[in-house]
């Protein structure tokens, strides 16, 4: 069985070898970062903000092991329920809150986003940003950064995350994207940052169409 899994994985890797991509396999608890993803343009030595932003992708794939699908596998890769009833109910309730959060966004003008279809990827986006941001703040604080200097650095973190998803998409592109398991590019930004208290604070966001009251900001992990 192990040989079969490795064979399939090697074929998959050979097909994707030159792609700047990463993925997670719950059944074998494997996080794969393809070589092309680790090039200088993705992880520039002289731009730590971009390096942290790209690190979000690694955190995203790690979080797939704990999303609405990956959480159904135990530590050995078996598909089984290892949750207590109470913990499972709480986790499912939080998923429902995240679905509702994305449902209020637009996939394209006049069309609400589909938080159910995109749930696993939205959870991974959320987890990836949370992981990278906490690491970023820890590292900046260890360097002696504080006050406005730290807030400026945090703003740059969020801006560089947004740059990951910069794209010029037509209305037709957005309509086609609606059927993908990933949220559209804009919602991969908006859906995450509007759940993070620090984003509101460092950009002084106190109201607006995307504003989410503190008590309604979903906290999954």
Which descriptors apply to this entry?
two-stranded antiparallel ribbon; disordered N terminus; 221 residues; mainly alpha; two-stranded antiparallel sheet
Explain what you see.
- By secondary structure, the chain is mainly alpha-helical.
- The protein contains eight helices and four strands.
- The strands form two sheets. It has a two-stranded antiparallel sheet with strand order 1-2.
- A hairpin with a 2-residue loop joins strand 3 and strand 4.
- Helix 2 (48-63) packs across helix 4, helix 4 (119-142) packs antiparallel against helix 5 (147-164) and helix 4 crosses helix 7 (185-193).
- Residues 1-11 have low confidence and may be disordered.
């Amino acid at each position: 069985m192990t040989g079969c899994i490795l064979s399939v994985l090697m074929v998959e890797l050979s097909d994707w070898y030159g792609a700047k991509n990463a993925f997670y396999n719950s059944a074998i608890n494997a996080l794969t970062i393809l070589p092309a993803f680790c090039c200088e343009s993705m992880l520039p030595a002289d731009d730590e903000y971009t390096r942290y932003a790209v690190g979000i992708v690694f955190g995203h794939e790690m979080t797939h092991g704990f999303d609405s699908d990956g959480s159904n596998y135990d530590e050995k890769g078996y598909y089984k329920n290892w949750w207590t009833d109470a913990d499972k109910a709480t986790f499912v309730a939080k998923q429902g809150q995240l679905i509702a959060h994305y449902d209020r966004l637009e996939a394209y003008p006049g069309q609400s986003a589909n938080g159910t279809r995109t749930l696993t990827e939205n959870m991974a986006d959320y987890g990836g940003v949370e992981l990278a941001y906490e690491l970023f703040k820890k590292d900046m604080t260890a360097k002696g950064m504080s006050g406005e200097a730290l807030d400026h650095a945090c703003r740059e973190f969020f801006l560089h995350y947004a740059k990951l998803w910069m794209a010029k998409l037509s209305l037709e592109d957005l309509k086609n994207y609606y059927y993908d398991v990933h949220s559209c590019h804009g919602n991969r930004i908006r859906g995450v940052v509007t759940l993070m208290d620090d984003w509101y604070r460092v950009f002084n966001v106190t109201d607006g169409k995307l504003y989410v009251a503190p008590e309604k900001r979903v906290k999954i992990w």
